[in-house]
Amino acid sequence: MDLEYQTKTENGKGVIVVEGDLDNEQAGEALRAAFSSLFNRGERTIVLDLSKVEIINSYGIGKILMCYKRLKAEDGVLMVKPLTGFVKETFELLMLDSLFPVDAG
Length: 105
Prior knowledge:
This protein is α/β, with parallel strands linked by helices and 105 residues long. The chain has helices spanning 25-40, 58-72, 85-93; strands at residues 6-10, 13-19, 45-52, 77-80.
């Protein structure tokens, strides 16, 4: 079964709702596909909603950084919804919380 993440436009920003663990190739590919869908539609401000993610590892972080780099090259912005739990701790430990602005809206 293929994994897909929901994408939507909210308040002028593209949003990717990531569900489940972001720790394997299938999840990483689903994130890449969702990101590419928004990016190819011209979205240059994209928000990752990781509120339904319990586990993230270096594989998932790598995919997020790939999205960040692609947006940055186009003067875009990758944001995150407010983080919680293990995902928040991981972002803080890797100092990614200072790299990604938080979309509180």
